[in-house]
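Minutes, methods subgroup
Present: GH (chair), OT, SY

1. OT presented the first of two proteins processed in the latest run. Sequence and structure tokens recorded below as shown on screen.
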Amino acid sequence: MVGKVNKSKKISSNSGKNVGGKVFVKKTDLIGDIVFKYPEVIPVLGQAGLHCIGCHVSVSESLEDGCLVHGLNKKEIDQLVIDANKRVNEFENASRVSFSPVAVKELLKKVKSANSKYVRIVNSFGGDFDFEPSNSIEKEDVIIKLVNDSNFVELLIPSRIERMLRNVEVDYDSKIKDFSAKRKKNN
């Protein structure tokens, strides 16, 4: 792996139901908080019928209350909490985003041409990601040091986006002059 983690933020666990692994999601947690901290649980919530995770009520409604409104019973709610925690644990144990040597070389070019200290990964139109030169570190950034030969570039990535890109490898295609990403399979 080319990318190495230089600094990362830890998210503390809390109590609740789970089978194996740490507990991150409780049924008393607000849906909005769960989705913000652990975006990887969105498909799990959607499969349980909670398709309104982005609605205005999610910021003040607990997971249990949202489930009850959508007709889930206690057993189904408990299973949803188990499934959500399983998903979070998978991401907790997943490898950080990695970059091919060619991708690191292109990021180095971006940093040098802009005379910047870092490169930041940002959301772009349509849900894609892009890279922008940067000279400042934000409070929520995770810093990943990417090494290519004797050169390195430090990638700044908001912790929420870093979670979404776990098990992803980024490459650069010189023919189309763009980056591409592919999720690696879990071992």
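2. SY then presented the second protein from the same run.
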Amino acid sequence: MRIGQKLSQNRLDGQQNKCFQKNAHFFFKCSFFLHLQGFVWIALLDNMQNVSNMKVLIAEDNLMNQLLMTRYMGRLGWEFVIVDNGLKATEACKSDFFNAILMDIDMPVCDGIEATRNIRAFNSKIPIVAITAYADSLMRTRCAEAGMNAFLAKPCSRDEIKAVVAECVEISTFNAD
């Protein structure tokens, strides 16, 4: 991130300060949230608390994305189940416990929007995170209206997934009390 470097340059323009060298590296952490219509948007969240003992349902039909999610879940140490359509996601939620669901939108048989509505009919608490390549405002609105708790645009990193799931699980746990 060049933001820290730019901030420090702006701060030091015209000043002779021996502490800072050209091409020095600056690091900072920042967290902020934007809550809009009950939909949690996490722009940047770093240094999240340890999220362990998670069991996540991944609804994703693309084999490459399934392999990527397998790698992410393994590195996070999370238990997971992968299904390839929304109908299987709905059935998995009926028969097993999950801390959260990572839901693709464009899937065969039953898409992520319909699957979320079906899941919400019997489980209003489980955090559902949309993960999709369709990142326009209309899709975000459709996801929120269907009952999804958060939205991630593909491609997304393991850290982004961890942060969003951690926040959604924390909010879900808080709201259950």
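Chair's summary of item 2: The first strand starts at residue 32 and ends at 36.
Next meeting: continue with the remaining queue.
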